[in-house]
Amino acid sequence: MIEAVFMRHTDRLRSVVIMGVSGAGKSTIGRLLAAELGAQFRDGDDLHPSENVALMAAGYPLGDAERTPWLREVGRYLADARTENESLVVACSALKRAYRDLLREHVPEAFFVFLDGPMPLVHERISNRSHDFMPPSLLASQYLSLEPLQADESGIRVDITMPPDQMIELIAEQLTSAASASRNAS
Description:
Blueprint: E1 15-19, H1 26-37, E2 40-43, H2 50-57, H3 64-83, E3 88-91, H4 97-106, E4 111-116, H5 119-127, H6 139-145, E5 155-159, H7 164-185
């Protein structure tokens, strides 16, 4: 197990958001990372209201108006975990900077893990899986909306062509470094 710096529940690194387009591996990597860190995992897709699920299942991309209440719910979930002194890893697309800013309104110290990869690979992945409401036809709209992490955002970009175990090791190392840096800054 990775050095338990994260497990000490530093104020700044209890909330990790695994972000990216559908099919990038958010749920898989989120579950693996949570297990590695001894944290809880929550799939943000489970927090979508039924109206959003119906729109996506019918092949319609969500707009900001539909995403905002969902993102607020994800943010509340992160904030509740922090209030309970729990470490939480959440899978949430968080495609735009404004979406991540909305999550940071609830948990300013959130650390974002951007799972990034080429559209053909992701399209192949989602074409070969079963998902309740995210058809492959919506992938292009997600890439059009995607705003990668910016230099002033707390987080890391991870190449999804890496094997999952290497991804988890890289993320955990970054979390340990970030936790150490925040402790030293205090």
